Amino acid sequence: MKDLAGARDKAQYMNQLREVVAMADIVLVVLDARNPQGSRCKTLEDLVMRSGPNKRIILIMNKIDLVPRGVVQAWLKHLRMQLPTIAFKAVTAVSASANEQKIQATAGECLGGSQLIQLLKNYSRSHNIKKAITVGVVGFPNVGKSSLINSLKRGKAVGVSAHAGFTKALQEVKLDSKVTLVDSPGVLLAPESDPDCVLRNCVRLDKLVDPITPVETILRRCKTEQLLKLYQIAAFRSTDEFLTLIARSRGKMLKGGRADMLAAARTVLEDWNCGKVPFYTLPPAQPEVSAAHAAVVTQWSAEFDLEAVTAKEIASVEAAAVDNGENFMAMESGDAMNVDGLDEDEEVSGEGAMDEDEDESEEEKYECMV
User: Fold this and answer.
1) Are the C-beta atoms of 23 and 136 separated by less than 8 Å?
2) Can you list the positions of beta strands (E) in the chain?
3) Is the Cβ–Cβ distance between 45 and 28 less than 8 Å?
4) What are the distances in angstroms from CA 46 to CA 18, 176, 216, 336?
């Protein structure tokens, strides 16, 4: 993705993201369970916080089937200190035929869907809302936003793809008479050359000019012994040696018997992004939570009745998550992204929206939400 076809297209997508926040009563921020903190956008969360006292955020930790159970539980504990959070596994299989809109029962089970729907209904009930609520679905490319919507709808409501940047425009889906979902494009908020963006699966690999630098990042973060076991290759001392061995084992050779280093690097990145290289990150140290922030978490959790809704969650995590992390690579958690431009040049609508130029402290931001 070349910065979403340029600055003009990126600005358009950023406007759409702001539009989703303005429209929504509740914003679902979809995270990748393998790197939840690295798939958060602090700027976006702050934008929602500033856009009105009645707007709410729910974090959706998707793809819990790709990480060990203990890791899922550790992240849920960490994230719920900050915002209401639901563990989720979307139905990812496609229908049997092109004309069939219903997802087959054998395609897999959605876990966390009933809890999420109940949270939304609890919010409407606690605020005595009689009309339908609008729920925005946001997140980085390829975290599973559209798959989440299809899982809740129990059918193919929006298109999905393994390629980053598939969703190009806002799509509204009426879940029932009480809930309307809005799918948004996954906006790439950093240069496509950023290795972390590549490893978040935010960039189309066939468009990537330099696939070798992200591979170097993988080699720095992973244990060599695990890579040797995974790829069944001999020991290596450098990135070039590693890619040469991969090229030979995968048949990525050029004329004259030279290794096709770019093709080998793309192969490794494909393995990484499709889950063949199993990895997870552990939660960082919990930051100190201000009294105002803690009050917001308590109030929101009560509105959603989070404790009651998630009472049976342990069984879902037990059913979906991996037994143990024996063959996984434990990685350092990525940082939540901060970006410039998301809240610039456009006022966010909504009751109680703050002036763009107002210098608001972290404490004041949460005090206005209580």
Assistant:
1) yes
2) 26-32, 56-62, 85-87, 133-138, 171-174, 179-183, 279-281, 329-331
3) no
4) 12, 29, 33, 12
Under DSSP, is residue 330 helix (H, G, I), strand (E, B) or coil?
A: strand
Distance of CA 354 to the CA centre of its chain: 27
Beta-bridge partner residues of 135: 26, 181
Cβ proximity of 91 and 107 under 8 Å? yes
- Which of these, 208, 113, 222, 206, lies nearest to 162 by C-alpha position? 206
The answer to whether residues 98 and 144 touch, using CB atoms and an 8 Å cutoff, is no
What are the angstrom distances between the C-alpha of 67 and each of 12, 44, 275, 356? 35, 26, 10, 40
**Looking at the predicted structure, is the pLDDT value of residue 252 above 50?**
yes
* 204 vs 300: CA distance, rounded Å: 37
The pLDDT of residue 310 is 82
Residue written as tokens 């996954």? Answer: 186
Token code pair at residue 364: 């004041």
Give the tens place of pLDDT for each residue, 21-71.
999 999 999 999 999 998 898 888 888 888 888 899 999 999 998 888 889
User: What pLDDT is attached to residue 54?
Assistant: 84
Residue 341: C-alpha distances to residues 40, 136, 179, 190 (Å): 16, 20, 30, 11
**Does residue 144 carry a pLDDT above 70?**
yes
